[in-house]
Design brief:
It contains one helix and seven strands. It is mainly β and about 140 residues long. It has one domain. Strands 2-3-4-5-6 form a five-stranded mixed beta sheet, with helices on one face. A two-stranded antiparallel sheet has the order 1-7.
Length: about 140
């Protein structure tokens, strides 16, 4: 059986704009994160644009991310379904002055997508059974 290693972008092979449309399996990223109980489904769509500059190549990823999460209630630790949907633009370039990430030959898009989901999810969620007036 082959192990899923994620979507790897070879930045040297991209010569024009590309469309992205894939469903990563991000479950392996949440194994040690206590408030993430599960990631049921994630859909990533968008575009990769490559530009050339005197300082080096620049890749811009315009992404739309949708993810169905199961988060832990901050009080009871019960499961709380949470749907997350957002747009993000990420720039990979020769330096961090004008980029979010340094452009390397291989970009593991799954890692990048998971990091974006982690930053966008709420800090805490409450299960509907929790009396919010007490907290």
């Amino acid at each position: 059986m082959l192990k899923y290693i994620g979507m790897i972008i070879d930045s040297k092979r991209i010569s024009e704009n590309l469309d992205i449309n894939y469903n990563p399996d991000l479950r392996s990223y949440i194994e040690d994160i206590i408030d993430f109980l599960d990631i049921l489904e994630t859909k990533v769509t968008g575009k990769i644009k490559k530009e050339y500059s005197k300082d080096g190549d620049i890749l811009t990823l315009d992404l739309h991310i949708e993810s169905s999460l199961i988060l832990a209630c901050a009080i009871t630790m019960l499961e709380v379904p949470y749907f997350l949907e957002f747009d993000t633009t990420l720039v990979f370039g020769p330096n961090l002055e004008n980029s979010d990430y340094i452009l390397t030959r291989e970009i593991n898009l799954d890692e990048i997508v998971f990091a974006q989901i982690y930053m966008e999810k709420p800090y805490s969620v409450l299960h509907p059974s929790v009396d919010k007036e007490n907290y």
